Amino acid sequence: MTATPGLIPRGARNPGSQGALRHLNQERLVEYLLANGPSTQAELARGTGLSTATVSNIVRDMAAKGVVATSPVTSSGRRALLVQLTDTGDIAVGVDFGRRHVRIVLATLGYDVLAEEQVALEPGYDVLEAVAQASALLDRMLVAGGHDRQAVLAVGVGIPGPIDRRTGTVLQGAILPEWVGITRRELEDAFGFPVVVDNDANLGALAEVTWGANRGERNLIFVKIGTGIGAGLILNGQPYYGFLGITGELGHTPVAEHGVICRCGNRGCLETVASTSVMLESLGRSGATTTSDILRRGLEKDPAVLRVVGDAGTAVGQAIGNIANVINPELVLIGGPLVGLGDALLDPIRHGIRQNAIPIIAGTTTVRVSSLGDRAESLGAAAIVIQGALAGND
Amino acid sequence: MTATPGLIPRGARNPGSQGALRHLNQERLVEYLLANGPSTQAELARGTGLSTATVSNIVRDMAAKGVVATSPVTSSGRRALLVQLTDTGDIAVGVDFGRRHVRIVLATLGYDVLAEEQVALEPGYDVLEAVAQASALLDRMLVAGGHDRQAVLAVGVGIPGPIDRRTGTVLQGAILPEWVGITRRELEDAFGFPVVVDNDANLGALAEVTWGANRGERNLIFVKIGTGIGAGLILNGQPYYGFLGITGELGHTPVAEHGVICRCGNRGCLETVASTSVMLESLGRSGATTTSDILRRGLEKDPAVLRVVGDAGTAVGQAIGNIANVINPELVLIGGPLVGLGDALLDPIRHGIRQNAIPIIAGTTTVRVSSLGDRAESLGAAAIVIQGALAGND
């Protein structure tokens, strides 16, 4: 007999809720179809243990929503109904707002990228103007691809700031103060589509286990080092959102006991010593003014840049080490504009982890760069729409 | 449309695994029976969406294992089979080894406590001797209650140290160095029963959501402040074990930049400033030599004790604040021998959390003492056996 973390503690779920039950059963059918391809209703029932009545009810529903298509076939000499996940031309849109860019990806429910574009935004941009720009870009991409607006299921939007999931509102603490207070509703008005909002680092983490090389990873931290430093978590194989949805605020780990006061009000937070803006301030005398300068000079082994990246990386690693002691991840993925530096960035991070994590944790936590580069957040934003559609939310 | 953290990312599960599928379906039946009481097979099929064939197969299996009992009844004039979770006299044993005690609880699968006893252990006890003492105590408790040894399903054992779940071995870092290297197999030999081993703080957390006032809580940290400081996590409604099972090592959060070297090899860990042993060292001149002294004098408002508890509590709170920024728990429960101090302990912890957590996290995280006091770990140890039995592991 072994421990069974899998069994939900009593009362943690409400098994009596018909909606929740239907949702669970539908998830199971979708998973089966993703794993096994087109299947007859009989195969679905055998493969999932659901009754044929349950299967045919849910299939009818999903077919009405266009999530699956059904076609009559003959199986072992009998008439049967073949069910397959549709590629009806439905489009999931992922939008990633950064500090200086917006990136948009169009994808199918089968995780195929149809189009992908990025445009620069002025630093300190007006948020609603940027959203209007993004909406115009999306419209152009749809027209260019010959896609009907009706095909768009929803727009997933990644924002560099904490999101209160109770209300879909961007909270104090966003990298761009202008984002604070923006609601999902305002974004829906601007895009003219249903919108799902999430934090950019959460979406980066989700992208890694859906699109990336780390598909199927069960315990992973995605750490984005940019103007802000945030983390997205995959725990027990699922995106983790905690109580309010404000998770992964790694940038506010105190790392400098007598450091400066952070914009959050606390002292010596990681962001005050390791964000790309602080790196650029430190490098003021060396003439580096953008993260591209840091990247280029780092690759040329400029000692000033390597020192700054090393100090910042060590601090990031220390903060990760604290967290690793508690959540024991298998994998830490680093994202953001500096990942092209490779080991020049990763080695200091690993050093910082060793300083703060207990030896067995430090020794078994793998640190790599994101497999998706600057596409991670927008792909994650599309993934959240795809997952919502496959789960039959509406 | 909303985001769906509930849908497992592609590949994260293997829906093709028949064992995993059967396990999932069995969990669902057990949950239904826990929520709805005795039910006919037809009701189970309707209530879960499983086919009647699947239900009757799983019920037959569970009946053979004694997890459920079946009895023929008449329902709407038809013959039907009533299924109920059994109280066949099966006993789950929970054993909690502390630094100075071992506590044993006998419980039914229905979470009823049959017997509960605690005996003192000599500080610095020999581990195998203590295990033999516990085994003898368990035997006496079984005899005293008139319970057949056959009735014992398994013994859950809580140990104050990290456990490698791959091997069931106690790792370096255990509060009592003698525990290091002890394996589940050795405990099974000593007790003469199947054994499940887990970390004491993990079991404390599990007890809170199974036996305690916090049943159903989805995101909770249980922090045990004793000779060591460890945390157990309930995330998304389930006990969280991470990659290797070594989670919640809160005691090794660095909180003193120029502090002393910890037994883990790092500098300034929380345990070096806030464990009960360090509190007692600080109080050396005041004549307090046990945690009971701290508790008693703290309740008498002795200023030296309040200062030491205040400093330690603040440091614990700072470490919790770091973690709360990342996992955004709804609830933090404090356990260990000092919880009788109430707000004299909790207020400094809350203060520390406010220092290190961003305002919205600090403002929405509730801090309370454990609802189960010194029973938490042993009840959690029994709960892990109960959950294993209900999930049909063997």
UniProtKB/TrEMBL annotation, chains A, B:
<dbReference type="Pfam" id="PF00480">
    <property type="entry name" value="ROK"/>
</dbReference>
<dbReference type="Pfam" id="PF12802">
    <property type="entry name" value="MarR_2"/>
</dbReference>
<comment type="similarity">
    <text>Belongs to the ROK (NagC/XylR) family.</text>
</comment>
<feature type="domain" description="HTH marR-type">
    <location>
        <begin position="28"/>
        <end position="78"/>
    </location>
</feature>
<dbReference type="InterPro" id="IPR036388">
    <property type="entry name" value="WH-like_DNA-bd_sf"/>
</dbReference>
<dbReference type="InterPro" id="IPR011991">
    <property type="entry name" value="ArsR-like_HTH"/>
</dbReference>
<dbReference type="InterPro" id="IPR036390">
    <property type="entry name" value="WH_DNA-bd_sf"/>
</dbReference>
<dbReference type="InterPro" id="IPR000600">
    <property type="entry name" value="ROK"/>
</dbReference>
<protein>
    <submittedName>
        <fullName>ROK family transcriptional regulator</fullName>
    </submittedName>
</protein>
<dbReference type="InterPro" id="IPR049874">
    <property type="entry name" value="ROK_cs"/>
</dbReference>
<dbReference type="InterPro" id="IPR043129">
    <property type="entry name" value="ATPase_NBD"/>
</dbReference>
<dbReference type="InterPro" id="IPR000835">
    <property type="entry name" value="HTH_MarR-typ"/>
</dbReference>
